[in-house]
Amino acid sequence: MSITKFLLKEGYFSDSLPPIFSSEELSLKESNINVSKDYLSKNGSNKRSKLINFSIPKNSSFRRTLSIVHPLHYIKFANLIDEQWENISKHFEKSSVSLTKIIKNNSKLEREHGFEAMRYKQIENLSLNRFILKIDINRYYPSIYTHSIPWALHGKKYSKLNISEENLGNNLDTLTRNMQDGQTIGIPIGPFSSDIIQEIIGTAIDEDFSKKMEYKVPGYRYTDDMEYYFKNLNEANNALSVMNNVLKNYELDLNSEKTVIEKIPMVLEKEWIRSLKNFRFNKNYSKKNVRKEKELLIEYFNSIFNFYQKYNDKGIGKYGLKVIRNYILYPENWKIFQSLMLKLSLIDSTVLPLVHEIIEAYHYKGFPINLDEYTKYVHLIIEENVGLRNDYEILWSLYGALNLGIKLNKDATLKLTKYENCLVCIMVLLLYDKDLLYGSPKFEEYKEFISNETLYDEYWLLKYECCTNGWLEQDSLSVSSDKFFNQLYHNEISFINLNRDSVKVKVINLLTGLYFKEDKESNKPIKEFLNDHSIELKEEIINKLEASIKITMIQKLENQDIEGKNSKVTEHRFKDVIYSSNIEDEWLNKFISSNSKQKYINVDVNDEYI
Asked: Where would I find the Reverse transcriptase domain in this sequence (predicted)?
């Protein structure tokens, strides 16, 4: 996979969005899309577009705006990164302190170190130093000056004298501005492009700071969070002054509230992490333990709620859920577990994706999901967040309704068919397709949103998907006048995939793979196969599993005809398709394939909780 394909597939949509928003088809067919001048409409090469913005919770008090950039500009950005990766990689090597250095690992771009590396760096450097300078850049991504991209790559003085030169920095600057309607302040947050740009600038900051300090200061930078270690207070204060001047050179400022000098001793691991990960549930299966488990569940969630009152840290709920989902509950305790999770999501909405995944997984496992309670919960989330324009909460509640077949009532339907956000509009139209809205809405407001003839405003995605899905009386004529979108349309590229990463599809893929792995002849009855593993599933999943196995059998036979006797190649291909190394998939795989007597699955809980 090329860097271009990776950036289009993995780096276009933010992970904060429900997984039905997918750029896989764009990545798969990118070689069919030509973005050179001759294949674009007039002024297409320098055309500007508006961002599709949506708000997500940062913590209990603040929110952050994430964005989806226009595909034309993102393809150009991805192509440039691919072409210039060797030069960009050399630039990243200039930093000796970055933990977020982007490296190429096989066909993927990824950070060189994980979140846990920060703690290890602290431990390594505090044995010989007494003072810690903690630095945070104030509103880093929203404050980045796009013209500082060439400054970071080529030097500020040179770049100012050569603003029209065709070089990497100037090209990245232009593409970034075109993504956001010409704005020079801030960069789009959400796509992988923002990680690359911030690391380009962060590397230059690291290099400048090191040169001005005139000696190698022990420390690290993780995106915009920095820690440096010193033997005395004077050294730390001097470094703070130096860093302030370095940041000013890139039009950036220190966050005065989070920038501090601390003296050891200091806590290496937060109390709530230590408490939650060491909480002890009973791992042994016994019907006598049902009541005890119920008491422990209440005690565990009570600890989480207490930590929310005690600390203003983000990630408490996410971490807590990732710990407890390793314990497989008794069916008798599901009802209270569901209620506790829903209560947690009302306190901290960042846990919504995890809550939905856990509920779906237990649902397909045959546990007694309380759909009445969940239906009321979905409507409560919509009611509380529509007026506040909290897009994230609405999107995930609609995603839950779509997956579990929950029909929205009259009030929710009325409010959502007037909601001014491109992504929410698409989710509502998907619910409409499934007959999950009240009555027969006319969508007059939605039609007004896309009445503008341009495909470069904040509703381009809604208008394009209306054309591909036949919604709101739109068809191919709506995109035919634009050469770029005409290419997308005729290559049948959509940005919606109802099956992508859904729990139901993952479950079916997992068990299909397990079935063929164990039964080479593929003739064992499905229910016998499930009984052998003591796996209990809902009937609807068993039926879909049977269909999946039949299709896979046909595909295997076809592949064997093509490849002759080399069946190992075929088998290997299926494994590649079915199994994923994603940590979230690891939990789901182990949970679904667990037997009815199993109480615990061992999946590492990553300390990266931000």
From this structure: 1-305
Contact at 8 Å (CB) between 20 and 498? yes
Token representation of residue 343: 């209560």
Q: What is the per-residue burial (b if ≥16 Cβ within 10 Å, else e) of 507-521? A: bbbbbbbbbbeeeee
How does pLDDT run across 529-557, given as a tens digit for each residue?
Answer: 888 766 777 787 788 888 888 888 777 77
Report the distance separating Cα 381 and Cα 390, nearest Å. Answer: 10
DSSP state of 254: B
pLDDT band at 571 (very low <50, low <70, confident <90, very high): very low
Identity at 132, one-letter amino acid code: I
Dist. CA 85–CA 104, nearest whole Å: 9
φ, ψ for residue 263, nearest 5 deg: -110, 140
Radius of gyration of the chain (CA): 26
Torsion of CA 319, 324, 326, 331, to 10 degrees: -150
Q: Which amino acid is at 33?
A: I
Closest CA to 23 of 14, 31, 36, 32: 14
> Alpha carbon of 403 to those of 14, 183, 398, 426, 575: distances in Å?
20, 38, 9, 15, 26
Neighbours of 122 (CB within 10 A): 17
What CA–CA distance (Å, rounded) separates 546 from 273?
A: 42
- Cβ neighbours, 10 Å, residue 473: 9
Q: How far is CA 371 from the centre of its chain?
A: 27
Q: Which of 69-78, 320-329, 385-394, 593-602 has the lowest mean pLDDT?
A: 593-602
Consecutive H or E run containing 104: strand 102-105
**pTM to 2 decimal places:** 0.90
Spatial separation of the C-alpha atoms in residues 314 and 58, rounded to whole Å = 8
User: Alpha-carbon distance 580 to 506, whole Å?
Assistant: 10
Strand stretches in 154-292, DSSP E? 219-222, 225-230, 260-263
For residue 243, count CB atoms less than 10 angstroms from its CB and return exposed for 0-12, middle for 13-18, buried for 19 or more. buried
DSSP 406: P
Size of the chain, expressed as the number of residues it contains:
610
Joined tokens for residue 110? 């990824």
pLDDT tens-digit readout, 278-315: 998 876 666 678 888 999 999 999 999 999 999 988 89
